[in-house]
Write a structure and sequence with these properties.
Chain C: Belongs to the binding-protein-dependent transport system permease family. Chain C: It comes from Sphingomonas canadensis. The complex is a heterotrimer of chains A (about 325), B (about 325) and C (about 280). Chain A has about 325 residues and is mainly α. Chain A is built from 14 helices and no strands. In chain A, about 80% of the residues lie in helices and about 0% in strands. In chain A, helix 1 crosses helix 4, helix 5 packs parallel to helix 13 and helix 9 packs antiparallel against helix 10. Chain A is globular and about 80 Å long. The longest helix of chain C is centred in the last third of the chain and has 37 residues. The N terminus and C terminus of chain C are likely disordered. Classes of the chains: A mainly alpha (about 325), B alpha/beta (about 325), C mainly alpha (about 280).
């Protein structure tokens, strides 16, 4: 297990390096002059030149990349051009809201997706199977912001059960946290739940047809135990892997959900930075979230290896 | 009274062109402590019959007839009742030791969950009993094996574990479905010896399902031969191997390789292939491959005893 | 012998395919005939005294905050969505298949290419596209480029996996050992065998691109409102969504319908062409 973990950690280093390279190159290779764009239409050529020097845009790519990488390894993600606040600080202020949103969405999505997918596989053609089929197509076809406004209109605006906007820290007021987080998390969970239900159904269809499931039944175990212990334990690794890859759905969806529900998180930070052309913030947040994605998938792989001894081989 | 008494068992599967019967009117009786072998080619319905008795067929299978276990009909009883008899009344050992164990759970967990409720009450006692079971099937260092996973064991070891799991519920009958087919020859002999010694010690009955007549001759007291979903003959093992009554049984026995038969002694083989479910008719289904086939074979063979129109001649 | 396999229930798939095609033909018709259907309503005409009007006979979808006719804007918006969907599907599939075939066929390049693809894949598509459009300024072309890049990794992965599967087949091995040249093997054996899977995936990428474009425009990082798109129409309705929901409702319905149509088409095609294919992902 330790050997596998070390190999897997080592394998994610080049991936993380490529992520950094892309995020850096994104702003470097962009057509047009970032300094001119940043300075705005009213800036004089001298202003632009000054900004270019300040950003280090006049030096060669490789030099700048190495310097930038070096700073990042020391926790310096740059400074916001617009507010003058370090990007790391900005991220620190907003990370709780975004992570709460994603974790609650993850709980909702897996709480619906896994049981529905398992039921669908247990009785192909049954009610759950049809629900997964229909829910799957709808989940992939309705954008997050449409679900968001719909839920918000019904449950917050009309019924008043939840807050329409904002975010309350779970550590400050848990009731308030739930009132603000449940609707955005539910709308964010939609496509993710559809993804989880589909992969669970497909994997469980295979697993439930395996010989060892017949052995479990022959032992006299109850159907619930057969499906949950013997079925899901075998299906866990593929399901978790797809959930890890699908974290991109959550990370991207958070940007939109935060806009709809006025949540001061990393997504809003990015969107505001885009509108202000605050490149260091865009770069910093993108890099941060991509690293989160790499870390999540590393964690998922280690978890799979812990659950499923075949993965460790 | 028979321990397991199967009467008129019929299993049908739905198909596009209507239901197809995989087992037609099977009668079998297993007495306590005896070994009955159910013999036939793959597709003859012998495995389907055993799965039907255990209630392990998919919902698309239609099972009718009776399977009386200790006087109670397994086929008519509600699923929860049947489930209570699995493991504790009748246990199964399957052909594929590679895939019949759950690859992600330890041997210990898979053994312990097969124990009767009272023996699972305390963790330590359950582990003790599980180790005892492993020891009883000849696994050395059983304590440490409990924490291993199936892929860490050899094929023979896994089959021993399967047998230990089958014994865990203290059943009166074990259905062993091709228990040695997937194993090496030397390991086969060990598994056979193990099953025989367990039967001597515990008085458990075995329903042995196999196409391997050498194995059957070694283990079984009585033999029932199935062909194309029907039982064609049943007899004491010694009698059957000596004087097979049905031409199909005779063909099977002639096809057994013999030690000392000499390199040049050609194995007899039965020409052709068994009919598929859809090709079966009311007459003798073996007729197209039978050396004695005649016009009369197009009519249904005798329903009792040896299912052959020429049975007296064949027996002679 | 193992027990009979559990039967998989055959749902009436052709219906799905037909439904998808029907929906898409309708949307295509709307996009092509937008000026005709709009009946002289100008999507760009600003009428300050007719701001945020609710739907009426004269203005079937109402007007937006600048008094522009939403019926016309939503109709014209179909053009952008279809262009983005088609453009991204084509660009990502062609480029991704090329890279994937190279990675799957040229062993020495495989490691490097796939690490780069993994790296690119680690940046959530929405963020990557938002960042790219922010840098390049929003235009239909730039949005297509950005989304295509974000969708590229999935195509590369599928193409590479398919190539490796086909490459392992005996007849391809035989062709290789008998000295057939690489381009001949690629064109005669590999491409025809992966085409179905790539085509099915292209439809799912089209669906995802249409949605992503709407997201970009919705958060203000996409195509500017001078070109009406469903995303930027909804972006304008954002601030007043509780009191003027009509600004959001109509583009949202069209958007969902279009994406649904493409997804149904994809599911239908997958079951026809590539029955073993994976999910929409």
């Amino acid at each position: 297990m330790l050997g596998y973990a070390l190999r897997r950690v080592a394998a994610s280093v080049p991936v993380a390096f490529c992520v950094a390279l892309f995020v850096f190159a994104l702003l470097y290779l962009a057509p047009g002059d970032p300094a001119a764009l940043m300075a705005g239409d009213a800036a004089s050529p001298a202003d632009i030149e000054k900004l270019r020097a300040a950003l280090g845009l006049d030096r060669p790519f490789l030099t700048r990349f190495v310097e930038w990488l070096w700073r990042i390894l020391h926790g310096d993600l740059g400074t916001s051009v617009f507010t003058g606040i370090p990007v790391a600080t900005l991220i620190g202020q907003r990370v709780l809201a975004t992570f709460s949103l994603m974790i609650v969405a993850l709980l909702i999505a897996s709480g619906i997706g896994v049981p529905m997918g398992a039921l669908a596989a247990y009785r192909p053609g049954g009610a759950a199977d049809r629900a997964v089929m229909v829910g799957g197509v709808l989940g992939f076809s309705v954008p997050v912001f449409v679900t968001g406004y719909l839920l918000s209109y019904i449950f917050a605006y009309r019924l008043g059960w939840f807050a329409v906007q904002g975010f309350v820290s779970p550590f400050a007021d848990f009731g308030g946290f739930l009132r603000t987080i449940l609707l955005p998390a539910a709308s964010l969970a939609g496509a993710y739940a559809a993804l989880i239900a589909r992969i669970t159904r497909a994997t469980m269809l295979d697993v439930l047809a395996q010989d060892h499931v017949r052995t479990a039944r022959a032992k006299g175990l109850g159907e619930a135990r057969v499906v949950i212990v013997h079925g899901l334990s075998n299906a866990a690794a593929p399901i978790l892997t797809v959930m890890g890859m699908g974290a991109a759905v959550l990370l991207g969806g958070a940007v939109v959900t935060e806009t709809v529900f006025g949540i001061p998180g990393l997504g809003r930070l990015t969107v505001d930075a885009v509108l202000r052309r605050d490149y260091p913030v865009i770069q910093g947040v993108t890099l941060f979230l991509a690293f989160i994605f790499v870390a999540v998938n590393l964690g998922v792989d280690l978890l799979c290896a812990a659950i499923d001894p075949r993965v460790r081989q | 009274m028979a321990l397991l008494d199967v009467r008129g068992l019929r299993v049908e599967f739905a198909s596009r062109s209507g239901p197809l019967a995989a087992v037609e009117g099977l009668d079998l009786a297993v007495a306590p402590g005896e070994t009955l072998a159910l013999v036939g080619e793959s597709g003859s319905g012998k495995s389907v019959a055993s799965m039907a008795v255990m209630g392990l067929l998919p919902a698309t299978a239609r099972v009718s007839g009776q399977a009386l276990f200790e006087g109670e009909d397994l086929i008519a009883m509600p699923p929860a009742e049947l489930r209570r008899r699995r493991g504790s009344g009748i246990a199964m050992v399957f052909q594929e030791p590679m895939t019949s164990l759950n690859p992600v759970l330890t041997i210990g967990r898979q053994l312990i969950e097969a124990l009767p409720r009272v023996e699972r009450a305390s963790r330590a006692a359950a582990r003790g009993r599980a180790a005892e079971l492993l020891a009883s099937v000849g696994i050395t260092a059983p304590e440490s094996r409990l924490d291993e996973f199936p892929h860490q064991l050899s094929g023979g070891m896994r089959q021993r574990v399967m047998i230990a799991i089958a014994l865990a519920g203290r059943p009166r009958l074990i259905i062993a479905d091709e228990p040695t087919t997937a194993l090496d020859v030397t390991v086969q002999a060990q598994i056979v010896a193990l099953l025989q010694s367990l039967q001597r010690d515990t008085g458990i009955a075995i329903l042995l399902i196999s196409h391997d007549l050498a194995l059957v001759r070694q283990m079984a007291g009585r033999v029932a031969v199935m062909y194309a979903g029907r039982k064609v003959e049943e007899a004491a093992a010694a009698a059957l191997f000596d004087r097979p009554g049905h031409p199909y049984s005779a063909g099977l026995i002639a096809a057994i390789p013999r030690l000392g038969g000499g390199r040049e002694a050609r194995l007899a083989e039965i020409p052709g292939a068994a009919p598929s479910l859809a090709e079966r008719g009311p007459g003798c289904n073996f007729a197209p491959r039978c050396p004695m086939a005649a016009e009369v074979c197009a009519t249904p063979p005798p329903a009792t005893g040896i299912a052959c129109h020429f049975r007296t001649e064949a027996a002679a | 012998m193992s027990g009979p396999a559990l039967p998989r229930v055959a749902l009436r798939r052709p219906t799905q395919l037909e439904a998808g095609i029907a929906i898409l033909l309708l949307i295509l018709l709307v996009a092509l005939l937008a000026p005709l259907i709009a009946g002289g309503r100008d999507p760009a005409l600003i009428l300050p005294h007719e701001r945020a009007l609710p739907p009426s006979l004269a203005r079937p979808f109402g007007t937006d905050l600048l008094g522009r006719d939403l019926f016309a804007r939503v109709l014209y918006g179909a053009r952008v969505s279809l262009m983005v969907g088609l453009g991204v599907a084509a660009a990502a599939t062609l480029a991704g298949t090329l890279v994937g075939v190279i990675a799957g066929y040229v062993r020495p390049l495989d490691g490097v290419l796939m690490r780069m693809v993994d790296g690119l894949m680690s940046i959530p598509p929405v963020l990557l596209a938002v960042a790219m459009v922010a840098v390049m300024r929003g235009s239909v072309f730039n949005v297509i480029l950005a989304i295509a890049l974000a969708e590229l990794p999935r195509v590369v992965r599928l193409a590479r996996a398919s190539v490796q599967t086909v490459r392992g087949q005996l007849y391809v091995q035989a062709a290789i050992t008998s000295g057939a040249r690489t381009p001949a093997i690629l064109i005669r054996h590999i491409l025809p065998n992966i085409a179905a899977a790539m085509f099915v995936q292209a439809t799912f990428i089209g669906a995802s691109a249409i949605m992503l474009e709407a997201v970009l425009s919705f958060v203000g990082a996409g195509i500017p409102p001078t070109t009406p798109t469903w995303g930027n129409i909804m972006a304008e309705g954002r601030s007043l969504w509780q009191v003027k929901p009509h600004i959001l409702v109509f583009p949202a319905i069209l958007l969902c319908l279009t994406v649904l149509g493409v997804n149904l088409l994809g599911d239908g095609l997958r079951d026809r062409l590539d029955p073993r294919g994976g999910g929409a992902g």
